[in-house]
């Protein structure tokens, strides 16, 4: 039967299925090859729809992403899909990694924050091929960054206060192209035989009117 499995959909499952017997029925069990996915699709050999791939397509659409199935339409068989699409997704998470960008227009990047709708599409793209991955919200990332900063600040302060040798302080100032002036302060010390240089603070110099 393996010679008849030419549909591109088989490329998203392990090449060799398990052969089982369930209640006296012969069954081929195909395991999804996506990372972290434990879904297995069962195909009963004694039924008329033994070559039906409907359940496989339904799972691939939900597990690998809705963009994957249309990308397989131009493939001639499962081997081509496995090489050009599945391999690309497993390595990079993108179905476009094997395809060149069409057109010669200018590439424009937006630095604006994602809207709620764009965030949903972004998460769908990032989870393509990895549906089990968790993407934290911007609020969670902001909270964690502030927490890490606060804890690091406490550790550095404690280390400097308990240091029983000399501390050297340096300062530097510079002007940005927009004429804003900043001053930075750094501390230098030797900790357990290792020289350390730690930026302690950066301040913007207030404008002084003449």
Automatic annotation (TrEMBL):
One of its GO terms (molecular function) is zinc ion binding. It comes from the Eukaryota. InterPro entries: ZnF_BED_domain_contain. Keywords: Metal-binding, Nucleus, Zinc, Zinc-finger. It is found in: Nucleus. Its main location: nucleus. GO terms for cellular component: nucleus. This is Uncharacterized protein.
């Amino acid at each position: 039967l393996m010679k008849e499995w030419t549909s591109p959909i088989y490329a998203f499952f392990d090449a060799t299925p398990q052969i089982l017997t369930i209640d006296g029925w012969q069954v081929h069990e195909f395991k999804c090859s996506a990372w972290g996915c434990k879904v297995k699709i069962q195909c009963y050999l004694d039924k008329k729809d033994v070559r039906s791939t409907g359940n496989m397509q339904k799972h691939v659409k939900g597990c690998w992403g809705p963009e994957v199935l249309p990308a397989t339409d131009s493939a001639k068989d499962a081997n081509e899909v496995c090489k050009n699409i599945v391999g690309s997704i497993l390595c990079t998470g993108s179905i476009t990694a094997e395809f060149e960008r069409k057109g010669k227009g200018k590439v424009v990047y937006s630095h604006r924050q994602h809207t709620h709708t764009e965030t949903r599409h972004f998460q769908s793209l990032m989870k393509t091929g990895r549906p089990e991955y968790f993407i934290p919200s911007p609020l969670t990332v902001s909270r964690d960054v502030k927490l890490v900063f606060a804890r690091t600040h406490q550790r550095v302060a404690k280390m400097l206060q308990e240091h029983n040798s000399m501390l050297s302080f340096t300062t530097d100032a510079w002007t940005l192209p927009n004429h804003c002036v900043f001053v930075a302060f750094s501390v230098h010390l030797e900790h357990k035989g290792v020289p350390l240089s730690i930026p302690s603070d950066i301040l913007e110099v207030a404008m002084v009117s003449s």
